[in-house]
Amino acid sequence: MSRDSARMPPTQAESVIKNIIREIGQECAAHGETVSETLAAFMVKAVVLDPSNGFNMDRTLMKSDVQKLVKLCVSRLLDSKNPSLDTIKMQVYFDMNYTSRAALQSIFPQAELGTFLTLSKKDKERQLKELTMVVTGIRLFNRDCGKGGEGIDDLPAILQEAIPATTQHIDSQLQIAQDQAYRYTAILETVAKNPLLSMELQPYMLKEALYNMRQYETFLQIILSDIITCAQEVEMMIKQLGAQLEQLKMTVKSKTAVPTSQVFPIFIALSNLWTSFQDETVLISVLSNLTTHLEPFLGAHELLFPEKVMQNLLDGLTVKTDVCRMKEHMEDRVRPVDFRKQEWLFPETTANFDKLLIQYRGFCAYTFATTDGLLLPGNPAIGILKYKEKYYTFNTRDAAYLFAESPENYIDLIKEKAKKNAELIQLLELHQQFETLIPYSQMKDVDKHHIKPITKCESSTQTDTHILPPTIVRSYEWNEWELRRKAIKLANLRRKVTHSVQTDLSHMRRENCSQVYPPKDASTQSMRESSTRVPRPQIYIAGLRGGQGKITYGVKVNLTRAVDET
Question: Is the pTM value of this prediction over 0.85?
């Protein structure tokens, strides 16, 4: 399909693929089976990858090829008793549904409404969102105080009740899935040791049933991990909620009015925290529903393996758990001295040993490659092989030694097995190896059905001129006479006295600080309006008339008042 797409224009290739998927969906619908486009597309890829179907991607698909492709896809999609189809359906469903975590007047004064209306749409949305958060915080606070908040669910209590119940349900389902997987593994392990049983048990599709159960187990572990993380988040948020409500009570107390700058940030934080509670509630609901909807994809087990049939198959066998298998070979570790080119990692010598991304989801690579689909858990304690920046585990030391002798050979065998059972691509996390396909004409020294991923790509790098910081010592001097001159100069300086002066031009060159009193409002009166009056002269002369003699004598009398008396 990819070569056909490469030769056609993108729009034409996309149209051809869509027509094939649409025709597959119509054919399945005619037989009473509803198939999503995603499932049909996955099945097209699975059929093309399977070398037994003989599709050559080096040439354009003819009409007969398209008809054959549609017929094979429809046939596999209608096989309701095949655990392989159930596994593919489970994978598609999980990928499509899995989700990895008013008192406005008092809050929005009427005087600011005009300013709000002049804001842009984005700013209005931001302010309205902030107002909603404040109102939510106020209602939550009133609810805690018993003065309002009707209609608000007690989300912390709901979560504290729902999380343990969901965890318990998933734990029980996980235990059932693991027990069934252990029984399938015990039977397949016996078949691997006795090839004659392989033909007798082939109709039971044991390995397909094992893949189905291991995939279900993997999905349950992913969901359970998310729920545990959710429980930890809820526990932390409950503590934060109590602390914020207590802080609000201390801030408000019995005051009739509190500054908004003090309480609004707390209300907003309270609203954000409550939104987180809502998110966790939705997440728990989604994960719980996802767990419930995964169970119908296990229907083929009851049809193929009734309890009576299973007991007959297990007669005389010992069913071992994954933990028991690891303990059996715990002390049988790899000796690194036996290898010159291979690198082995161990818990005591490797940092973050438990966080390494193990290939094939931790199953033993050698056992799966050399048997007919047997999945045994690898034991990291005996040693992890690092090969081409990837990590591989094995269930025994002998398996590790044999795989290390020719890793590429066993890796190729696993890829060939994944082509025949497409559900292994997701179960063993082989997406990278099947991301791209190369044409047959470009293959050399490989089987004609062997398809390798393209590992070349255009890239560029840039190297710094000086990677390390410079270490040049500027004070270094190699000349002996120059060193003597500096020594004499230093000797003279020891007998000198240092003086320092401060000038008007240099005093601003040093850091300085001063403290002044800030100016304050004051008033002075420099003058006042006033008036003065000069005293009016009052001078009298007595004796100017009415005298008895011929000579007149006058007496001058000054009755003018003094200036300071006026």
Answer: no
